[in-house]
Fold each of these.
Amino acid sequence: MRIAKKKGFAIVIAILVAMVLLVGCSLSKDRKTEGSDNILVVDKAGTYALGDAYEEVIINVPDVQIEDGSVDSILVAESVGDGDVTLRNVKGNELTLEGGGPNSIIISGDSEIKSVFIERKDGVIRVLIEDNGVVESATVYEGSQDVVFEGNFGEIIIDASDIEVDIKGAEIDTLSVKGKGTTVRVDKKSSVKSATILEGADNSRIVFEGIVEKLTIEAKDCTVDINSTTEFIKIEDSAKNTTINVGENGSVGVINSTISFTLNGKGIINKVVTNSKSNIKGKATVEEVVLLTNSIPAANLGNTGATIKPASSVAKKETEKTDPKSATQIATVKLDSIAITTPATKTVYTVGETLDITGLVVTGTYSDSTTKVETITTVNVTGFNSSAAVANQTLTVTVGGKIATYKVNINKVVVAVSAITVTSQGDVTTVVNGKTLQMGVVVGPEDATNKKVTWFVTNDEGSATIAANGLLTATGVGKVTVKAVAQDGSGKENTKEITIHADLTAYNAALAAVTEANYTTDSWNAYQVVVAANLVTDTDKQTDVDAATNNIIAAQADLVIPVTGISISGDGSVAKDDTLQLTAIVTPSNATNPDVTWSIETGGTGSAIINTDGLLTG
């Protein structure tokens, strides 16, 4: 069911239409009362599964979601007010919006709506398309107030006067402005393939922050602000008093006009095609002016209020053609492609730096096979983000809807070393000769980019070597100085003094190896004389310690261990003329001289003889 579609007809037809509308409204009310099976009337908030059972849906309350089905028409009634309505996975022919607020209406999922008619009488209404939603056409009718479009629309028609329309984050195939005094704002995240300010939409204004490929102006007293890229602008003869403002970040490929217009701004204007030099008013810089019958030097254009640069040699030759058809073809030459012919000088950044396109040369190739170096500003380059380190970040250069890319690297901010403190394992300052000591460093600040150091050792009285990992090996008794130098080029360094002591392990072991009680007094006294002569400390040279150790060990060989006891083993008797082998057991077993002399004491009752080996004969 189509609700209140406005058209300008003859008076009689208008009356008939009004009668039909009244009857239609009456029928609609009757249907609500009767609860017809083919009409879904929603009077309570909630989620409704649509299915395929209904021809029409009438929504009278806010906070409603219709989902999963198809229907011929949907009406969001005025009683919905500023409330939200969501269509999800809904297919329909017509959606009429008399109600809905700044956060509504939402068309989501796989919804497909052929026509949306906006007829809200007051307040702001938003139409948001998200996910895979599709709207072929959206029309804003007279009496509507402010409207916001978000998402992708095939066509948007503004058929209301004195209205403000915002297009946000959208891709629009066709934008048509019909109503007088209309203001349309297209944000920088949006793009429009073709826009037209139709005849009758006088005193309207369009602000393009996003890309528009083609713009046609038919209405009088209109203003267009270009703050992005526009390929082609056609000013029709009916568009009197047109003003085009090209902002500093804007660029226009071609402006075609055979009537007077005002051109202002600091943006890039590549070409103006006109039939008279006097048509260009205002203050702007134009790269090239093409006259429909001939091409004349800038010096002969006179003071039109705009700064005119001479045409390039190729373009000048083409504009000398007098065939109007050929001249029109020149005016509609399109940019086919762009290429980066010289890369930007700066391709390596640190976090937080701004984009620098110095040296970047981009050449455009046009449909007439000509080429031209394009004027590029940072506005033409997207994708740059230096908030964090990243490798091979892709930047996109856009001119006239054509793109080229190049890559940059974003490195971490280099934080220099501000201080170094040399440490050692266990915080010791001594090491035994021949042993190792692990050295370390504390580097500041904590977030220094490069904390690596190079190790050095300076030999004073002592000597040592140090590995790349800071492992110190003592090679000579005395003091050495260990130094660490920052590798980041900051010049920061620090030192620590280490004392190397002689290794007394063998020396002390030799002294502990003998005990006075085990030796004869004479030999012990002689040994102590040697010990006294070979006293050393850990500050002595290792060679001296080693020599003293050897002397002490040698002297220990002269120590005498006395015999403290002898016992004889063997049978206690022997027959006459028989033999008995006796054995002498000497204590201690390690006595220096364990030898014994055998003899037989006299005075007994018997007699015997014994040899040197202890063999007794009776």
Amino acid sequence: MPPAPGARAPRAAPRRPLGPPPRSLGSPLPLRRGEGAASLRVTRRRCLPIRQLIDIQPLTERALLVGAPRKGSPDATQVEEHLDELGRLADTAGAEVVGRTYQRIEAPTPNWYLGQGKVEELKGVLARTGSTLVLFDEALSPVQGTNLEQALAVRVMDRTELILDIFAIGARSAEAKMQVELAQLEYLLPRLTRMWTHLSRIRGGIGLRGPGETQLETDRRAIRRKLSLLKKRLEDVADHRANQRQGRRACPSAALVGYTNAGKSSILRALSGDDLFVEDRLFATLDTLTREVDVGGYR
């Protein structure tokens, strides 16, 4: 029926699309009177999927490999082989190797291990390669590590610390995790000053030992307590394993021994038929495994 003359035509109801309403992560904020396009843009930005706000890729360390062999000891080929293995360790730990260098020395210097001229040269190499990490093939003392980090303004690790970091990644059993933590804490204790940054003092008072102690001393005491606890727990695990070996004493046994990534887990997997974890990388498996194997009708 047509509307009467002068009457306003009724407004048609909005048409809803077919199918279920679209899903959203949250309702947009209502616009207040007087707000325009700027407020609308803010509202839409707040409705972006959460994935776009928190999906941040971790930065990959760019590692520079440094060797310092003694003069007259390994030849150039052996030095390069050592650095090749250090590079594979870095890859296992998730770092990208961007360069390598080495210097033959008569003896390590007490301050930087290397000579001061080589340390200055490393600064230029770090700038050219954009390295964020220096990996030393030799073991560094706590003083040498501290001085190198201060001189180069990047993190410095030696082979031992790098391997412990890889162990922490690969440890799966409770025993392996305790052993790795024990080794890390024993390595960390003499280097705590280098790694500790919050050098504030705690005032003495009721319940505190002495007139006061630095937080560094508190951390050292906490690490020593944790070391004592881990050693006690590992002693209990060792006693349990000794009992297990005693129960298997009547059975003939053999051991697979070899260098890391030599194929020990692959051999045990082939002999036992178990689905053991194997991977072509250094220190891929750390746990000690025992399996029953049928060889010519004998177990």
